[in-house]
Amino acid sequence: MSQLMGIIQRLQTMQSMEGQEDVPQRQFEVNGKVICQVKFFSSTGTFEVEEYDKDNNKQTYQFDDIDAAAIEIFDIIQEEKTYR
Fold first, then answer.
1. Do the beta carbons of residue 44 and residue 58 sit within 8 Å?
2. Residues of the chain above pLDDT 70, percent
3. Domain count, the chain
4. Domain of residue 60, residue span
5. pTM: predicted TM-score of the whole model, two decimal places
6. Residues 74, 6: contact at Cβ < 8 Å?
7. Which residues of the chain register pLDDT less than 50?
8. In the sheet that 25-30 helps form, which strands lie side by side, from edge to edge?
């Protein structure tokens, strides 16, 4: 549960950066490997999660709910840890 709270805190920090010119973004890693990147678009209030597979292909997901975005990121991290 503490890992999920850490993810939510990082997303909340991104939301608090509203008004800046750049789109806030964060990378999430497992064992030094970037497994996903998250962007927050303040104009729409949405998070964009880009998940990278082992071949560095990406899938993109949009979320308008911080909890849903955090759960998706958590699941991506857990899946990577399980298959390593």
1. no
2. 94
3. 1
4. 2-82
5. 0.89
6. no
7. none
8. 25-30, 33-41, 46-52, 58-63
